[in-house]
């Protein structure tokens, strides 16, 4: 019988940051339960080969979230880490946003994280060691962006949720933090930037130019760089870290970069 160091649940695990995060934890000897709406055959095979359990779940449903957490508890009788990574973008101005648009973004980016936290905290309260929750926000959660106000609102609220719950549950040894990535390559969300554009490299250049460090290194952020920060926040080294929002955005949220 395999003894795992920790039990970890990761949502939005099928690609990008979620996939890199799940593989990181699996490599550390953790029991990893991943959840997503759908998987490519290639990514599912990669995850399962690494030992990640791949569940199909719609995080917009509180019942689905509870099933994922309860499944993890049934397997190992504990939950050490929850990574609320599932999310979606939306580039629309307010005049073009329908009620359905609003609900879809908020349910995916905020409601899912809130009820994921609720289910995880209920489990972690029963553990003397508490636990760790990491929410994947965005640099849009740190500063307003003119092209995607609904997305920005959802991520700002997620940063606020992180800080509020961290304050509420530090006494229970439950640490709650978030990471705020900028443009990350090889993710479903970044692929939306290429829709309707004939020159892919031109789009890549635009994304790199928006972040001063990305511009300096002449590359985008990798999913693995975000995943490494998530691994740190869940580790023993971060036992005294809670309520933080770590910007992994190439300095994009700092302000107007120099020429």
| Low-confidence spans | none
CATH architecture, by name, is 3-Layer(aba) Sandwich
CATH homologous superfamily placement:
NAD(P)-binding Rossmann-like Domain
- Strand elements, count: 7
Q: What share of the residues lie within helices?
A: 40-55%
Describe, in plain words, how this protein is organized in 3D:
Helix 1 (16-27) packs across helix 9, helix 3 packs parallel to helix 4 and helix 4 (99-124) runs parallel beside helix 5. The protein contains nine helices and seven strands; from the N terminus they run βαβαβαβαβαβααααβ. The chain has helices spanning 16-27, 41-49, 62-76, 99-124, 149-169, 188-191, 200-209, 212-217, 223-233; strands spanning 7-11, 31-36, 53-56, 81-84, 131-136, 174-181, 245-248. It has a seven-stranded parallel sheet with strand order 3-2-1-4-5-6-7, with helices on both faces. It is globular. The chain has a single domain, classed as 3-Layer(aba) Sandwich (Rossmann fold). The chain starts with 6 loop residues before the first strand and ends in an 11-residue tail after the last strand. It is 44% helix and 14% strand. Strand 4 (81-84), helix 4 and strand 5 form a beta-alpha-beta unit. With 259 residues, it is α/β, with parallel strands linked by helices.
Task: Reconstruct the topology from this structure.
Blueprint: E1 7-11, H1 16-27, E2 31-36, H2 41-49, E3 53-56, H3 62-76, E4 81-84, H4 99-124, E5 131-136, H5 149-169, E6 174-181, H6 188-191, H7 200-209, H8 212-217, H9 223-233, E7 245-248
Helix pairs in contact: 1-9, 3-4, 4-5
